[in-house]
Design brief:
With 407 residues, the protein is mainly alpha-helical. It has helices spanning 2-32, 62-109, 117-134, 139-186, 190-202, 204-207, 211-227, 231-251, 256-269, 275-295, 300-314, 318-328, 336-349, 355-367, 371-382, 389-405, and strands spanning 38-41, 53-56. The protein has a two-stranded antiparallel sheet with strand order 1-2.
């Protein structure tokens, strides 16, 4: 529509310019050649015939020259008006779309003809078919049927509205039940986690535009990455999860969980990338984790992840920092104190959050030379049962850490 309007505006402007030029040329020619020959359109040509030409010679045309001049001046005036109209049209075009939209909204709110287009046509079609079957009717019968059609149309609109509302409620209920199912599977065994991913992929077409669905799909890819046995499988699941994460944060930038799990999958991808992409993913991880904390400041999991990031950055080697500085201008910056602060925040929000959090608290205290606090955290970690693969890894770290604290 915009292209057509612009094309019409350009053609109108060109026509206006051409008309002005033609009028000026004719007028100047008239003034400079009052005794010469003239050619003009014959105004008398009618009934679709082509306009002819009339030649008038100089000496005997004194009476008609004033008439020609008057016509030319009128032409110039009309062209001037045309230019003003084109200018007004050009100024009105930018607001035309908004005006049309407002008009359509007004018609829809008022229950105007546009609002009833589809139901009315459907009823009229039914009425027409009935008329064919029963034969011709009187004008009174037709008028009565018309009133009946209108009543049916209004009723059908209410039925359609109720049906749409019912469909929407069923859609929400189905999604809610699905999410509860995959949340339960996420906490289960390895086979449960695989089943969770299968179910989510099966319903992607139906719910793939919902952020609560997408972040669970990222989580499922992360789960399958962790339990996969080969490096190729792990990388494939990490890449698939990262792609879903990109879509999720674009779809709903205000969903904290989408940012959180996108950050996690970017951190996972660091294991399979070049040094350049590894550092890049580290920045992405931090940015989206900060956003998750901003949107949901009382989620202990986000602080735990941020503590892990700070601890890893604090352990960066000199060469890794130089690469980061060369590629990005400023390397990631974090200290052991930053990591400790985040791990303590986890305990503040949810005491006894996890065995792994206690282990990292112990490691931070050890690196800071606070042996007593480090032993307390190790004791707290030892008192917690081992129920997951992550707990098993934490216990291995704990077994290595204890001897270092006795020195």
């Amino acid at each position: 529509m915009a292209q057509t309007e612009n094309k019409m505006l350009v053609l109108g402007a060109l026509a206006g310019v051409a008309g002005v030029s033609l009028a000026v040329v004719c007028y100047q020619g008239f003034k400079s050649r009052q005794t010469g020959s003239w050619m003009m359109l014959d105004p008398r040509s009618t009934k679709g015939q082509a306009a002819g030409t009339m030649f008038v010679d100089g000496p005997g045309v004194a009476g008609s020259q004033a008439d020609v001049l008057e016509r030319l001046e009128a032409l110039i005036h009309c062209v001037s008006d045309l230019k003003d109209e084109i200018k007004a049209l050009k100024n009105a075009l930018p607001t035309l779309q908004a005006q049309v939209t407002e008009k359509l909204r007004g018609d829809s709110a008022a229950g105007g003809p546009l609002h009833r287009t589809i139901p009315t046509r459907r009823k009229r079609a039914a009425g027409t078919a009935t008329g064919v079957r029963t034969g011709s009717r009187s004008s009174e019968e037709a008028e009565s049927e018309g009133g009946y059609i209108t009543a049916l149309t209004d009723s059908e609109e209410e039925d359609l509205s109720d049906a749409e509302q019912t469909d929407e409620e069923e859609h929400v209920d189905k999604l809610s039940a699905l999410l509860q199912q995959v949340d339960s599977l996420h906490r289960g065994s390895e086979s449960d986690k695989r089943e969770s991913l299968r179910i989510l992929l099966e319903h992607t077409e139906e719910f793939g535009q919902t952020s609560t669905f997408l972040w669970r799909l990222i989580r499922a890819y992360s789960d399958i990455h962790d339990i996969s046995s080969t490096m190729e499988e792990k990388k494939t699941h990490a890449e698939s999860g990262k792609k879903i994460g990109e879509d999720a944060v674009k779809l709903n930038p205000t969903c904290a969980e989408s940012h959180q799990w996108y950050a996690i999958i970017c951190g996972i991808m660091a294991d399979y990338d070049t040094m350049q992409n590894k550092i890049k993913n580290g920045y992405i991880f931090k940015d989206h984790l900060d956003k998750a904390i901003e949107l949901k400041p009382h989620d202990p999991f986000s602080y735990y992840l941020l503590g892990r990031w700070c601890y890893a950055v604090a352990q960066l080697s000199w060469i890794e920092r130089k690469v980061a500085a060369t590629l990005f201008g400023e390397p990631p910056s974090a200290t052991i104190e930053d990591a400790l602060k985040n791990f303590l925040k986890v305990e503040e929000i949810q005491p006894g959050y996890s065995k792994t959090n206690y282990v990292f608290l112990a490691k931070c205290y050890k690196d800071l030379g606070q042996q007593g606090n480090a032993r307390k955290m190790c004791e707290a970690a030892s008192s917690m049962s081992t129920t997951s693969k992550e707990d098993e890894e934490a216990q291995k770290e704990l077994d290595l850490l204890w001897p270092l604290l006795d020195i």
